[in-house]
Amino acid sequence: MSPPSSPSRSDEIRASSILPARREEVELHTADGLTLVGELALPLHRDPVATLVTLHPLPTHGGFMDSHVFKKAAYRLPALADLAVLRFNLRGVSSPRGTSQGTFDGGVSEQYDVAAAIELAEFHDAPPLPHRWLVGWSFGTDLALMHGLDPSVEGTILLSPPLRYSLPAHLAAWADSGKPLVALVPEHDDYLQPPEARERFAAVPQAQVVGVDGAKHLWVGEPYVRRALEEIVARVNPAALPMATTWPAVEQEHEPSATAR
Fold first, then answer.
1. pTM for the structure as a whole
2. Which residue from 98, 81, 80, 83 is spatially nearest to 39, judged by alpha carbons?
3. CA-CA distance, 84 to 38, in Å (whole number)?
């Protein structure tokens, strides 16, 4: 359903908005024998045109599947852009959805978590999940660079990449693949700001480094969340732009304000 032609203020999509979607609890099974918990959000009345496999920030600093940019992607993009959004807790991480088995391993054993997520997306058949992109945030960007170069992945989008765990060899592998790599780098990032990011990602000729004025590492603030989501959609389903900023109020749900940053 499309938003009304003359929406009222109550129809505005806000930080707390949850738009209609099919939401499925999923389990991911890793090659080293763990079960991870997650959620798959799908367009309500049609099959997705593309798929986001999200990799959350550092668990030791509060990262989990509900980290707010990814949660808002799952709440909005199935409706606004016909995207499937897969979120899950890496090993040892808890959220209201549950706790994934295992323990944090500094990006090493997490290779199996990334592989399990890609596998779930690749072989999901009701509906199929096409045009799969990895979307990492902070620590998740390192996981994408280190472990995400899979034949079934079309490209990767990196939010606030610190380039902390990944090595030049990983950038070289992405360069050789020719697959799209987009880095969304906040102007005031705590770890890697746009000028240095452009220097370091120069090792990947096809990489696009997008500096985001005013943004910080955690993308706090609704204008920055919207910018991040727009940049993601511009790569995976540009036909959905510009995205609607309203939706019928009667079809929206809302999170408690304390959890919508």
1. 0.95
2. 98
3. 13
